[in-house]
Specification:
This protein is mainly alpha-helical. It has one domain. About 55% of the residues lie in helices and about 10% in strands. The protein is built from three helices and two strands; from the N terminus they run αβαβα. It has a two-stranded parallel ribbon with strand order 1-2. α1 packs across α2. The longest helix has 17 residues. The protein is globular.
Length: about 80
């Protein structure tokens, strides 16, 4: 599946939500900006009774920043 495809994002959110429900923990998902907006749209469009409405969606740092930080740590 193409990672920016809505069905891929929705199935990922659904999987994580069901896993969190199974383990009785809160669902917190972090995406980078382009995927964050698509995930937010999926959560907003979900039925009110859907477990997707319980997801806490976080905006992650860009990969370039994370890569630079990882490089500094390993240096």
């Amino acid at each position: 599946m193409y990672s920016r495809d809505n069905s891929c994002i929705l199935s990922t959110l659904d999987f994580v939500c069901n896993l969190a429900t199974k383990h009785n923990v809160h669902t917190i998902v972090t995406f980078i900006k382009p995927l964050y907006w698509k995930a937010a749209e999926n959560i907003i469009d979900a039925l009110q009774s859907s477990c997707l409405k319980n997801i806490v969606l976080a905006l992650g740092v860009p990969y370039t920043y994370a890569n630079a930080e990882g490089h500094m740590i390993t240096s």
